[in-house]
């Protein structure tokens, strides 16, 4: 057949068939078809939206951002007053979301690490306690856990008058957690400066020690100097300048506490539920990571006379981290996204103050939805860029 | 061999007294044997270990005894109101009568009591439809599974919704019903005789020796008979209309996650193929869709569809809350499913694609016959994991005002008789979620082990 086609002059139908079977032609055809469908669909939706909005007298502009929002926000990390603009509300929402994410990530990592190591324990009781902790908590919905912590624990706490108190400065009641607020005095800036200097010094020292070790094989003890720089220096400066830091203790006045730092119950419930839920997934990631390092590595290290602590630090962990870090980061991203469930218990995060309250008040559905989704997209885009960089760096160098 | 052995053998014969006789093995130390040994090794191997064990046991004791005493020992089982419960045990024990009285609502929501049989019947059909997938003698599993995902929703939608049905709608419902008849017939035929329904019809009519075309026509005729029967059944069914506002409880949770699962599998396959496509535009569009839906929280998508869907559609078209939520969940689930399927496709070695090409298979044939069957096998654990996530995530629809299991549990405490009852219904639905999710995850683990048996040595 092929021979005949190439020698004989093909007739018109055969030429068309060859044309339509050409891979490039087909690919262009399908792409144009898809584009036409997508453009048509989007055009249809946009046309409908424009018509619906003009019918309801809605506007899609961003001009409302400067208008005063006119509602209060129960908890704001950045200063906010009722008369502030919608733009300010957006910023408050982002700040609150980021606060929940950061605190939640730190707690979830610590808890997940502990549970993951417990799961690996050779002690039968401990590894089973960890196992059932993980199974029970990750097989129930997060929203259910958040609501249970909020309505089942934090709102059932005693009134301020009968607060649970610890150390005279910490009080827990149905209005949240009260704790002493630090009040920096004159010269406290010096201590902060010392903290920064100490941290930089510690990092430089550790790097220098590693460089010396890699160049000469000599092990420079780092623990004491690093601790001294990072902790000792700031403490020394703090006490030399006369300990310029006061504490503002919360005081019970009438029906409520005055002064100190108040953390609302919704924040407490959200953080506890989020970090416990995420810790289950982190624990499984830690376990998989440690188990992924072949046991031969431990045995080889011991055969070379490397002590157990150093084996863990310098041989097992670096290899395990390569497996642990990528899924860990995606759990962090999940936690950040899950913090949007705050709306169920009234904590003012981005979705709650912006996509719910502001949207209902201003009616500007399109800009508000676009801004909220844009924020989350930006966060996950930034994180995945960092991840790709990291992955490229830790890729096993094959020779 | 024997040549080499001879000198050594003769040396032994010369001095029989020096022959090596191993001593019998000594028994293992008593401390490592039996239950005592096991306990010693796994719980009390060292002093710190023993301490940690005791601490762990104490923790377990405190936790378990608190739960048991609250749920069972101190619990009240018979009372007319929460007041009576509180008078009997205070807050020290659970007040179960409230939950028991609400169980119908927790399961069916506000669905009319006299119509609940429709939900039960659809659930029974679903179970009957799915069971053949696990029976080893049934061979048409692919067709049964596909029909379950694609055609059962039509039948179920009518059972749940009821009301007027036009000709198109009737035809679709009958299609679902006919598929069910076919599944039942073919699985019964395959279990009993090892032949599919179509072959059995051909044999029964004594047409086994006739030409292929004739037998195919006979087969189609048999399917048509099934369809006509289904049409007759559909026409005779006339169910009253039940508004989706009344749907709720576990039923609604299952409906939403079921739609999400049924939609996300085919949509995820299309998106994953699109993302891996060599056509730049198609790959770009698929990637954008997947990344957009994966990077935002589900609740923002639910809110978006809640506020934007009425704007997107022509004026006058009403979309109820349930449809908005289902659309949001479906799109969200398909983005995640697409990434799982892409992962599975990536795990298939290039050689498989090249071999399929060399055999002359086109793209769709290679994908459908060579790549997908292998990839799906690798993906099953992740797909089940995605289903578990979806089932848990449906709780979010309670935030946009649907009465799913979680909302119904919170509604118990607003009933005047059971005012403030919160922990008991929550404990109950936690158990439901846990049992469903845990058994799914254990099943997927089991499946993973069985499917990877070929790779193990």
Structure description:
The complex is a heterodimer of chains A (399) and B (457). Chain A is of the alpha+beta class. Chain A has 3 domains: 2-53, no CATH class; 90-179 and 264-394, MetI-like (MetI-like fold), CATH 1.10.3720.10; 181-248. Chain A has 13 helices and 8 strands. In chain A, the strands form 3 sheets. In chain A, strands 1-2-3-8 form a 4-stranded antiparallel β-sheet. A two-stranded antiparallel ribbon of chain A has the order 4-5. In chain A, strand 1 (164-166) and strand 2 form a beta hairpin. In chain A, helix 4 runs antiparallel to helix 5, helix 6 (142-152) crosses helix 9 (265-292) and helix 7 packs antiparallel against helix 8 (223-240). In chain A, 29% of the residues are buried. Chain B is mostly helical. Chain B folds into 3 domains: 25-69, no CATH class; 101-111 and 246-451, MetI-like fold, CATH 1.10.3720; 115-241, no CATH class. In chain B, helix 12 (280-295) crosses helix 14. Chain B contains 18 helices and no strands. Chain B has helices spanning 2-14, 34-43, 47-73, 82-89, 96-108, 116-130, 141-161, 167-193, 197-204, 212-236, 249-276, 280-295, 298-312, 321-346, 350-358, 363-393, 405-412, 423-451. At the A-B interface, helix 3, helix 5, helix 6, helix 12 and helix 13 of A face helix 3, helix 12, helix 13, helix 16 and helix 18 of B.
- The poorly predicted ranges of chain A are 1-8
**Taking all residues together, what is the mean pLDDT of chain A?**
85
Q: Estimate nothing, just give the exact number of structural domains of chain B.
A: 3
Give the SSE order of chain B as H and E letters: HHHHHHHHHHHHHHHHHH
CATH topology of the largest domain in chain A: MetI-like fold
Largest sheet of chain A: 4 strands, antiparallel
CATH architecture of the largest domain in chain A: Orthogonal Bundle
Tell me the radius of gyration of chain A.
Answer: 30 Å
* Computed structural class of chain B: mainly alpha
Q: How many β strands of chain A by DSSP?
A: 8
The first-to-last residue Cα distance of chain A is: 49 Å
pLDDT average of chain B, as an integer? 87
Anisotropy-based shape of chain A? globular
Specify the oligomeric state: heterodimer
């Amino acid at each position: 057949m092929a021979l005949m086609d190439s020698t004989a002059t093909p007739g018109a139908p055969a030429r068309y068939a060859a044309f339509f079977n050409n891979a490039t032609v087909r690919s262009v055809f399908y792409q144009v078809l898809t584009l036409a469908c997508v453009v048509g669909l989007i055009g249809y939706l946009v046309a409908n939206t424009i018509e619906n909005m003009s019918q309801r007298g809605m506007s899609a502009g961003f001009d409302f951002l400067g208008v005063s929002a006119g509602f209060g926000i129960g908890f704001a990390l950045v200063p906010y007053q009722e008369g502030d603009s919608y733009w300010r509300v957006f910023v408050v929402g982002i700040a609150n979301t980021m606060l929940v994410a950061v605190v939640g990530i730190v707690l979830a990592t610590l808890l997940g690490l502990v549970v993951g190591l417990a799961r690996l324990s050779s002690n039968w009781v401990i590894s089973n306690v960890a196992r059932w902790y993980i199974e029970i908590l990750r097989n129930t919905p997060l929203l259910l856990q958040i609501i249970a912590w909020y309505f089942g624990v934090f709102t059932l706490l005693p009134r301020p008058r009968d607060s649970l108190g610890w150390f005279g400065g910490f009080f827990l009641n149905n209005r949240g957690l009260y704790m002493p607020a630090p009040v920096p005095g004159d010269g406290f800036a010096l201590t902060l400066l010392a903290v920064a200097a100490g941290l930089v010094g510690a990092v430089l020292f550790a790097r220098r020690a590693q460089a010396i070790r890699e160049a000469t094989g000599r092990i420079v003890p780092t623990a004491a100097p690093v601790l001294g720089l990072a902790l000792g220096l700031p403490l020394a400066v703090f006490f030399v300048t006369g300990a310029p830091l006061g504490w503002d203790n919360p005081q019970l006045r009438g029906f409520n506490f005055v002064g100190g730092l108040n953390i609302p119950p919704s924040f407490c419930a959200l953080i506890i539920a989020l970090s416990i839920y995420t810790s289950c997934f982190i624990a499984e990631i830690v376990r998989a990571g440690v188990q992924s390092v072949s046991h031969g590595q431990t045995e080889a290290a011991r055969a070379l006379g490397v002590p157990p602590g150093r084996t863990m630090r310098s041989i097992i962990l670096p290899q395990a981290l390569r497996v642990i870090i990528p899924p860990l980061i995606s759990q962090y991203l999940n936690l950040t996204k899950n913090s949007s469930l705050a709306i169920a218990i009234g904590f003012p995060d981005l979705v709650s103050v912006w996509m719910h309250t502001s949207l209902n008040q201003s009616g500007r559905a399109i800009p508000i939805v676009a801004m909220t989704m844009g924020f989350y997209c930006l966060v996950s885009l930034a994180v995945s860029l960092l991840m790709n960089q990291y992955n490229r760096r830790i890729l096993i160098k094959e020779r | 061999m024997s040549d080499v052995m001879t000198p050594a053998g003769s040396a032994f014969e010369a001095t029989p007294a020096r022959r090596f006789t191993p001593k019998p093995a000594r028994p293992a130390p008593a401390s490592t044997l039996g239950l005592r040994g096991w306990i010693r090794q796994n719980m009390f191997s060292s002093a710190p270990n023993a301490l940690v064990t005791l601490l762990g046991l104490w923790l377990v004791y405190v936790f378990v005894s608190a739960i048991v005493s609250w749920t069972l020992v101190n619990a009240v089982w018979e009372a007319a109101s929460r007041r009576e419960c509180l008078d009997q045990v205070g807050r020290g024990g659970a007040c179960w009568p409230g939950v028991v009285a609400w169980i119908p609502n927790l399961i069916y929501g506000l669905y009319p009591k006299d119509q609940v049989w429709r939900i039960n019947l659809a659930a029974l059909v679903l179970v009957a439809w799915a069971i053949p997938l696990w029976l080893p003698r049934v061979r048409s599993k692919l067709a049964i599974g596909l029909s379950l995902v694609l055609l059962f929703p039509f039948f179920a939608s009518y059972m749940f919704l009821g009301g007027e049905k036009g000709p198109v709608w009737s035809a679709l419902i009958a299609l679902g019903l006919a598929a069910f008849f076919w599944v039942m017939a073919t699985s019964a035929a395959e279990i009993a005789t090892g032949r599919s329904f179509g072959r059995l019809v051909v044999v029964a009519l004594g047409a086994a020796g006739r030409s292929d075309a004739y037998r195919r026509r006979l087969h189609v005729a048999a399917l048509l008979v099934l369809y006509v029967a289904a049409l007759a059944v559909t026409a005779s069914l006339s169910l009253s209309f039940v508004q989706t506002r009344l749907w709720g409880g576990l039923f609604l949770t299952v409906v939403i996650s079921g739609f999400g699962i049924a939609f996300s599998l085919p949509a995820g396959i299309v998106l994953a193929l699109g993302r891996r496509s060599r056509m730049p535009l198609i790959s770009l569009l698929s990637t954008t869709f997947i990344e957009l839906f994966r990077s935002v929280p589900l609740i923002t998508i639910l809110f978006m569809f809640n506020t934007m869907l009425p704007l997107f559609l022509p004026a006058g078209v009403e979309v109820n809350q349930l449809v908005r939520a289902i659309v949001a969940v479906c799109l969200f689930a398909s983005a995640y499913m697409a990434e799982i399927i892409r992962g599975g496709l990536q795990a298939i070695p290039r050689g498989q694609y090249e071999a399929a090409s060399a055999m002359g298979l086109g793209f769709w044939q290679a994908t459908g016959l060579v790549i997908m069957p292998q990839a799906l096998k690798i993906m099953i654990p992740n797909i089940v994991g995605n289903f578990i996530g979806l089932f848990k995530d449906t709780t979010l629809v309670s935030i946009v005002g649907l009465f799913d299991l979680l909302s119904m549990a919170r509604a118990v405490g607003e009933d005047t008789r059971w005012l403030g009852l919160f922990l008991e219904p929550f404990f109950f639905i936690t158990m439901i979620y846990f049992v469903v999710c845990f058994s799914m995850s254990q099943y997927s683990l089991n499946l993973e082990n069985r499917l990877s048996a070929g790779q193990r040595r």
